[in-house]
Amino acid sequence: MGLLPLTLAVLVTLAGCSTSTTTKPKGSTSPTPTTEADTILSSQAGRVTSVPGIAGLYGVACPTSTSCEVVGGNAAQPTPSSKNVAASLDRGAPSTPRGLSAPGVLTSVACSSVVGCEAVGRGVSTGLVVALRNGQPGHVEPVRGTANLASVACPSATSCETVGVNPGTGTNTDQGAVVAITKGTPGQARTVAGTTYLLGVACPTTSTCIAVGTNTKQGVVIPIHDGTPGKVQAVPGTLQLNAIACPGATSCEAVGATTTSSGHEGVVVQLTNASPGQVRAVPGSTQLEGVACADLATCEAVGYANKAHAGIEGIEVPVVKGAPGKTALLPGTTILEGIACSGLSTCEAVGGSGALDALRGSLVPLKLTS
User: How wide is the angle at C-alpha 20 spanned by C-alphas 16 and 25, nearest 5°?
Assistant: First the structure.
């Protein structure tokens, strides 16, 4: 998900998948524009359905082909009276939202098994980790040394990696943070010098994960081996990378944003063995916030477009072999934050619908066609 402030959210069903705010630094490489030849897939949106009891949804994970877990909150920013919220999806239909025991906002969820998932987010003063078992939330664990945990991925049944930000104190600036979770228990936060915020993480193998984020000037990529962050790689032509998905052991897709002379624009970056390749611009987008892959070749990215006179609208962009296709506006949505694919034909995305000052969680079916 994008940089603070947190945005509120929507749930989107995509059928047929074969598968934050920013300024361009001086001297950076311009992203390659998408051409008409890059357009491979399109999508058709269905009816937008609100999710009662949830003001915002931010994360989604699908442990089976028919079930998913979604997380969010009943407020955009954590306060002593706000509550984390989790809900289950059965064939796209949401359950009654479940409030957690501590105030905050859940921002991401990942599932290590059919019945076990880990959710992360931010509380009033620290990042949070909470286990979900059969959809039921457990005890909320605060994570010292973090102000927010933005993303989580689980490479095995007993281990997960979560990333976020370590709050700067005094003259120290914020730094990205990596936290290993073992059997539901978060470990010590490790700061990552050369970064200011880590926003997304994915694990292509059981021992290797890849985090993405920003150093305030460019997007960054960081390999994580057995819980230890490696060398930071800046990605010229980007300002931040918000999310990453890895359909294979050596291939990943990252999405985010850059800036242009006329404003902001979404970007897609393909990674091979954790090394970023060409940066591809996505015309018609303002920022890409989430990405998921259902096979080695095809992924789906989501985000939003800021239309000067029409306001903000959620978008979906197919990504085939690293090449983004045509941006599709999704009427009835405002911002799409995350996405997960439960199989070769169905994905679920989360975002927000309605006015910016009164967003609500929603469901939107999408059907992809070639």
Answer: 120
